[in-house]
Design brief:
CATH class: Alpha Beta
Number of domains: 1
Helix content: 40-55%
Structural class: alpha/beta
Number of helices: 6
Strand content: 5-15%
Order of helices and strands: EHEHHEHEHH
CATH superfamily: Response regulator
CATH architecture: 3-Layer(aba) Sandwich
Distance between the termini: 15 Å
Largest sheet: 4 strands, parallel
Radius of gyration: 14 Å
Strand order of the largest sheet: 2-1-3-4
Length: 144
């Protein structure tokens, strides 16, 4: 089983969107049983909160199913458990490094550039496009 974890600041916009986009892609490919996919935050600001409503609307608009969930913060156990950990921006990388030191070396960016936080930009459509591109690249990489 391939275990994939997505990380963003609060775990209410980008990382849960990525979690459910990748779950949808692997389900449609008939490979859902091959993956464990989850998402977490680097901060404690949104702990316990659900997916931000505009992010939910974007997932609905794109036909991506999602479950009710509560934001949670990454733990050292996550670093050990997950095979592939993808963060959304350089700020997330700094948090991971400050929390876990060199253990955070296994974490990588989802894209070669930051995935802008729609909490601040309001552009959930662009975030969707970035996340979809990143998730498709993950599947391609894991197929090789």
């Amino acid at each position: 089983m391939t275990k994939v974890l997505f990380v963003c600041h609060g775990n209410i916009c980008r990382s849960p969107m990525a979690e459910f986009v990748l779950k949808d892609l692997v389900r449609k490919a008939g490979r859902a049983g091959e993956f464990e996919i989850a998402s977490v935050a680097v901060s404690r600001e949104e702990l316990g909160n659900p997916i931000y409503p505009p992010a939910q609307r974007e997932l609905n608009r794109r036909g991506v199913p999602f479950d009710r969930r509560a934001a949670r913060q990454i733990t050292e156990a996550d670093l050990l458990h997950f095979d592939h950990i993808y963060y959304m921006d350089r700020s997330n990388a700094r948090y991971l490094r400050s929390m876990f030191g060199s253990k955070a070396d296994k974490c990588r960016p989802l894209l070669s550039r930051d995935v802008a936080d729609p909490w601040y930009t309001g552009d959930f459509s662009q975030t969707w496009e970035d996340i979809l591109a990143g998730c498709m690249a993950i599947l391609k990489e894991l197929d090789t």
